[in-house]
Design brief:
The complex is a heterodimer. By secondary structure, chain A is α/β, with parallel strands linked by helices. Helix content of chain A is about 45%, strand content about 15%. A five-stranded parallel beta sheet of chain A has the order 2-1-3-4-5, with helices on both faces. In chain A, a hairpin with a 4-residue loop joins strand 11 and strand 12. In chain B, a hairpin with a 2-residue loop joins strand 1 and strand 2. Chain B has a single domain, classed as ABC transporter involved in vitamin B12 uptake, BtuC (Orthogonal Bundle). The longest helix of chain B has about 30 residues. By secondary structure, chain B is mainly alpha-helical. In chain B, strands 1-2 form a two-stranded antiparallel sheet. Classes of the chains: A alpha/beta, B mainly alpha.
């Protein structure tokens, strides 16, 4: 064999696997990146989100994938750190060349990678709530949780009915807390509410009797706590321990029955807005979300042996939106076509509500996505 | 400010302060024997709390806490046996770095054994909503437990280090390890005992504060930072100093909340700590001579 022949054979040998792997990437699988804070302070969000995403991907692949292509999920644990989220986002876009990214779990992280995804022309469907993620609109950035503005409006509506006008606000010093505090302060005048005092606490706070004493001294008629951290239970306990009789309102971050268990009896009577997942059992059968919510709840609870939360639901919705858009855009659609397809999605029932996307609305949910809930006998029930 | 409010701030300060103090005491024990700061002290608290929470589902609470204390102190002994004892020529800095590494490892192991969820022990007396009315101000009964347990530990340690042979040998190792060895004290065993003791006390502290602070795999770090600050303020190695330092920091934080936004709480506490340390570098109750003997 001449040297030339050997060279040609070797060249072919090198090219064959390259050709195969190339085909595999574009032809049979769609890579989806996921950045969730599976551990760390926001693990309450990231852990159910990652579990939900894995469960859904398995189910979709079990049914033959999307448009005949298998989905491949790459989960990265950011531990709630924006710095890690940034490097994972770059890694997913540049090295793994993913089709889209779902997550991150927190608003702070989402804001940090918003421009990275926009520049990388990679679809990002965030699982974090802050409205700034999609306002101003970035063409490749979407989010599935309900807007915090609507949560604040819902809370003020209930306050009006109860005749409450003077309130105190406490919030955690993270992206979610600060965004919520901003919305509450912005909407208060129009709703006839006066915020007498607004305080920010460390997200790792272990005792809040000091700041609640300050609220008590101001004679507030209600307390609003806005956070996603375990301090949500501490606020409830400390208020009872201080013998404060005024009602406690929480944000939609309270939508996890674990917080209720942690706060025990102190959780009774807390009022908060949330998606309908938590009261799926009591929805009327003809409600458009009922079947989907019950299926997700039962699947999740039987698979993982823990209660389903609205946070896992955000990951469900993000994936659902992506998958529906890919189906709609067709088998050979590129990122841009799928992006356009998301903007065309209308009347899509998810766990968080009915999504109606448009070029200017990259969240797609309105105020009706929220239901006011309260805690009764250690369970979530509809507030009436 | 009315009297009730003043009292309420003071009680809130005492609540936080007693938590800081009980953590700070654990730092002091290992410091007293080895002259090192054990940066894995916060993880002992977490381990104690987590173990007690897991055990409390099969046994009564007091028994679960006792078992958690025993298990954690064995974990402490194991850490010494596996890592600290293996160091060929243990320098203070070397051992400190080992404890920093250990704290990370323990945290990750805990994340795998348990998970990322927040748990807590039930309140020892009453429940989440019970509170005791002290002249118009309110306090959770659990705070009294924390204060009570810290006082008992301080008294116990005082007696142990002053009057028992083991305790005195441990102190001897700290002040001059060569001289202690010449007197026939087995210095390595003393280090093991100090790790067991501080792990056990850390675990007990972790159980007592769990209903208030809640326990999570990474809750040790933030508690340890405050505990460390308090240990320095009170004078390293001095358990009474830890209690005084804890209450001082707690009260400072609480009263800073009453006049400034909550966000400045830590800044105020640390600023005052720095001022105190400029005036008294050995801490509130630390002795100058004792501080001079230490390597740092």
């Amino acid at each position: 064999m001449s040297l030339k022949k050997i060279f040609i054979v070797m060249m072919c040998a090198c090219l064959i696997p390259a050709a195969f792997s190339c085909k595999k990437q574009s032809g049979e699988t769609i890579k989806i990146g996921a950045i969730f804070s599976v551990t760390g302070p926001a693990s309450f969000l990231g852990s159910p989100e990652a579990k939900t995403a894995k469960m859904m991907i398995d189910e979709i692949n079990g049914k033959g994938g999307v448009n005949g292509k298998e989905l491949k999920l790459i989960v990265k644990d950011s531990a709630g750190s924006p710095e890690k989220a940034i490097s994972f986002a770059k890694q997913l876009i540049e090295e793994d060349k993913v089709f889209a990214i779902i997550g991150p779990s927190t608003s702070g992280e989402s804001m940090k990678i918003k421009s990275i995804c926009e520049e990388g022309k990679t679809i990002l469907i965030s699982c974090a709530a802050a409205e700034v993620i999609v306002n101003p609109v970035a063409s490749y950035v979407f989010k599935s949780p309900q807007n915090d503005r609507f949560a604040a409006q819902k809370i003020y509506e209930v306050m009006k009915k109860m005749g409450i006008t003077r309130i105190g606000v406490v919030s955690s010093n993270d992206g979610f807390g600060l965004a919520g505090k901003g919305q509450l302060e912005k909407l208060a005048p129009a709703s006839g509410i006066t915020i007498l005092i607004s305080e920010v606490y460390d997200k790792k706070a272990t005792d809040l009797t000091g700041v609640l004493t300050k609220l008590k001294a101001k004679n507030v008629q209600a307390v609003v706590n806005w956070s996603i951290v375990p301090a949500q239970s501490i606020v409830a306990k400390n208020m009872k321990q201080l013998n404060m009789k005024v009602p406690l309102f929480q944000s939609h971050g309270f939508g996890n029955i674990k917080y209720v268990k942690e706060a025990g009896e102190a959780a009774e009577g807390i009022i908060f807005p949330a998606g309908r997942l938590l009261i799926a059992d009591s929805l009327p059968d003809n409600h458009p979300q009922k079947a989907l919510l019950m299926k997700y709840k039962n699947d999740y609870e039987s698979k993982y042996g823990e209660d389903a939360s609205t946070f896992g639901g955000h990951a469900y919705d993000s994936l659902l939106i992506l998958v529906e858009a890919i189906k709609k855009a067709g088998a050979d659609a590129d990122k841009e076509k799928v992006r356009d397809a998301i903007e065309d999605l209308k009347g899509l029932a998810g766990t968080g509500g009915i999504f109606n996307f448009s070029a200017t609305d990259h969240n797609g949910l309105d105020i009706n996505a929220f239901e006011m809930l309260t805690v009764k006998g250690g369970k979530f029930v509809k507030y009436e | 400010m009315s009297f009730e409010q003043l009292l309420q701030y003071a009680l809130s300060g005492i609540t936080n302060g007693s938590i800081y103090a009980i953590v700070a005491i654990g730092f002091n024990i290992i410091y007293n024997t080895t002259g090192i700061i054990n940066f894995a002290q916060g993880e002992f608290l977490m381990l104690g709390g987590m173990t007690a929470i897991s055990l409390s589902s099969f046994m009564p609470l007091p028994l679960a806490i006792l078992a958690a204390v025993v298990i954690t102190s064995f974990a402490g002994a194991l850490i010494d046996f596996l890592f600290i004892r293996r160091l060929k020529s243990p320098s203070v800095l070397g051992m400190v770095i080992v404890t920093v590494g250990l704290s990370i490892v323990i945290r990750e192991i805990a994340l795998h054994i348990w998970d990322e969820k927040v748990r807590s022990l039930p309140y020892f007396t009453g429940n989440e909503i019970s509170s005791i009315n002290i002249m118009g101000a309110f306090i959770s009964p659990q705070v009294l437990w924390v204060i009570g347990v810290s006082s008992v530990i301080v008294v116990f340690l005082g007696v142990f280090f002053k009057f028992t042979l083991t305790g005195r040998s441990m102190r001897a190792c700290a002040s001059n390890i060569t001289a202690a060895r010449l007197c026939g004290i087995n210095a390595r065993n003393m280090v093991t005992i100090s790790f067991m003791l501080s792990a056990g006390i850390g675990a007990l502290a972790g159980c007592v504060v769990s209903p208030i602070t809640q326990t999570q795999y990474d809750c040790g770090t933030s508690l340890a930072i405050k505990g460390f600050t308090v240990a320095i303020l009170g004078g390293l190695g001095n358990s009474t100093g830890a209690v005084v330092g804890g209450i001082v920091i707690g009260l400072l934080e609480a009263f800073s909340i009453s006049v400034l936004p909550l966000a400045y709480k830590d800044a105020v506490a640390i600023a005052i700590l720095l001022i105190i340390l400029f005036v008294r570098p050995s801490g509130l109750l630390g002795k100058k001579e004792a501080a001079g003997l230490k390597e740092f």
